[in-house]
């Protein structure tokens, strides 16, 4: 990721409503949420929410898909990986033991479900 893309991502997330929106969409991966539902849950007027969603979309943090009469938004998880990699790319000067606590933070909170054979 180039620095100017990282700056665009950080700028998009530097406003409280947009940060809350992105975090809400991350919670609802992979199904996403309709724009109206996002506005309702965050108690933001729909026209204001539309502007926030456009900024997040331009930064590549979210994407939309039309479902009938609704527009459903989803977080772009790959973009999260890109920005995280950008931040820690030169981490720890080649000493991986220094990065272990950081890596532990990124361990999924919800381990994958193990298929049970009956």
From TrEMBL:
Span of domain HTH arsR-type: 1-95
Record GO terms (molecular function): DNA binding; DNA-binding transcription factor activity
Keyword Acyltransferase set for record: no
One family name in Pfam for this protein: HTH_20
PROSITE patterns the UniProt entry points to: HTH_ARSR_2 (PS50987)
Keyword DNA-binding: yes
The entry's keywords: DNA-binding, Transcription, Transcription regulation
Domain of life: Bacteria
UniProt xrefs under InterPro entries: ArsR-like_HTH, HTH_ArsR_DNA-bd_dom, Metal_resp_trans_reg, WH-like_DNA-bd_sf, WH_DNA-bd_sf
UniProt-listed NCBIfam families: HTH_metalloreg (NF033788)
PANTHER family assigned to the protein according to its UniProt record, in alphabetical order: ARSENICAL RESISTANCE OPERON REPRESSOR ARSR-RELATED (PTHR43132:SF2)
Protein name according to UniProt: Helix-turn-helix transcriptional regulator
Upper classification of the organism: Bacteria, Pseudomonadati, Pseudomonadota, Alphaproteobacteria, Hyphomicrobiales
């Amino acid at each position: 990721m180039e620095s100017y893309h990282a700056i665009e991502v950080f700028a998009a997330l530097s406003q409280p409503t947009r940060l809350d929106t992105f975090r809400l969409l991350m919670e609802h991966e992979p199904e996403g949420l309709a724009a109206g539902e996002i506005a309702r849950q965050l108690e933001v007027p729909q026209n204001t929410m539309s502007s926030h969603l456009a900024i997040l979309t331009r930064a590549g943090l979210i994407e939309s898909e039309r479902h009938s009469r609704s527009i459903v938004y989803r977080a772009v998880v790959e973009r999260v990986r890109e920005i995280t990699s950008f931040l820690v790319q030169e981490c720890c000067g080649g000493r991986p033991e220094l990065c272990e606590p950081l890596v532990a933070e990124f361990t999924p909170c919800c381990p994958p479900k193990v298929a049970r054979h009956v």
